[in-house]
Design brief:
single chain, mainly alpha, 0% strand, globular, ABC transporter permease, transmembrane helix, transmembrane, membrane
């Protein structure tokens, strides 16, 4: 039954323009990176296009675009469900609140992964078209994208909790951006480990897997699991019908 719910979510997303818009927004920062990398290669053809495109694109993506996408994914999805009575309709079927709750969480996580994957694929493709691609650099960027995804889980959990448990869009939207703004200053400071909202920006240029990276990933996973469980408990007690 969980598979059927996920399939229904996929059909709804396929019929909307949200995924296409999300991907377009995702690729926005890459245009700057591609342009700068192209100019650098005109000056020196030994410039590594993969790293150049990444370096001049990733900060805008992890600091503004990706957090915004995470906020909007759950906000828009749950807003549409409440307007159209989608959750009430689903709960008239032989499904549990647990299945509904976690299916929507899974869809949100997959959409965030799709954004990161799209960023990675277009980056590598652009570097290939510039005839400057190194396997080692591709591997390094792939590792960074995986780490960005893992540290984004905490924010995903929080935004999903806010979006599914509060009917007013001002709560997830307002709190989401209120938490986002301080990350502009904290992510590059010595206190970045204390502010999970800035983890995506902090970790985006790290090399390898040092202790701070591991701590950020662990903290993010703990937040994701804890908030998701608390959110489910609250959602289960809510009288939707």
């Amino acid at each position: 039954m969980m598979f059927n719910i996920l399939r229904a979510e996929y059909i709804k997303l396929k019929g909307s323009q949200f995924v296409a818009i999300m991907i377009i927004i995702t690729l926005g920062p890459l245009f700057n990176g591609i342009s700068v990398a192209s100019k650098l290669r005109e000056i020196d053809d030994k410039v590594n296009a993969v790293e150049a495109i990444y370096d001049f694109s990733i900060q805008g993506y992890t600091m503004i675009i990706l957090p915004t996408i995470i906020i909007l994914i759950f906000l828009i999805n749950m807003r549409e469900e409440r307007i159209n009575g989608g959750i009430k309709e689903v709960l008239t079927l032989p499904v549990t609140k647990k299945q509904v709750y976690f299916s929507k969480l899974i869809v949100g996580v997959l959409l965030v992964a799709l954004s990161l994957f799209s960023f990675f694929i277009v980056l590598v493709g652009a570097a290939f078209l510039q005839n400057s691609i190194m396997i080692s650099s591709v591997g390094l960027v792939m590792l960074r994208m995986i780490k960005i995804f893992l540290v984004s889980l905490g924010i995903i959990g929080i935004q999903f909790y806010l979006s599914i448990n509060y009917e007013s869009v001002t709560v997830p939207l307002g709190l989401g951006f209120c938490f986002l703004i301080p990350s502009f200053f904290i992510s590059s400071s010595d206190y970045s480990i204390l502010y999970p909202w800035g983890y995506m920006s902090t970790i985006n240029n790290s090399v390898g897997m040092d202790l701070s990276n591991i701590l950020m990933i662990i903290i993010s996973i703990i937040i994701f699991c804890s908030v998701s469980i608390l959110g489910y408990i609250k959602f289960r007690k809510t009288d939707i019908c």
